Amino acid sequence: MFDAANSDAVLARVETEKRESMIKAWEENEKTKAQNKAAKKMASITAWENSKKAAIEAELKMKEVRNYKQLIAAQRKQAYFNKQLGIS
Q1: Which residues are CB-neighbours of 17 under 8 A, at least 6 positions away?
Q2: Which CA distances in Å does 37 have to 2, 31, 51, 54, 88?
Q3: 38-81 per-position pLDDT tens digit
Q4: pTM, entire model
Q5: How many CB atoms lie within 10 A of CB 54?
């Protein structure tokens, strides 16, 4: 036996579930897009930080090498003058 009122209620429930499912899928899609955008931004920031860190480390290394060379030159100069003055 066919119950039209029950059938309408079932169809209405199916439509409601379908709508809720579509809303949930849209929300999940938006959440995923936001997470992907945030991850991309974080990767960009991390890459920038790493680039800046590498540049600063390279500059520091160059200064260390320059200072070491200046130290060696000063020590040689001091040794030369000590030798000229007869100081051991």
Answers
A1: none
A2: 52, 10, 21, 26, 69
A3: 999 999 999 999 999 999 999 999 999 999 999 999 999 999 99
A4: 0.61
A5: 10
Measured over the CA atoms of residue 24, residue 30, residue 33 and residue 39, the dihedral's sign is negative
* Residue 65 tokens, joined: 């090498």
Q: What are the C-alpha distances in Å from 35 to residues 22, 31, 39, 40, 47? A: 20, 6, 6, 9, 18
CA–CA distance from 10 to each of 4, 16, 24 (Å)?
Answer: 10, 10, 21
Measured CA to CA, the distance from residue 4 to residue 12 in angstroms comes to 12
Position 9 confidence tier, pLDDT thresholds 50, 70, 90: confident
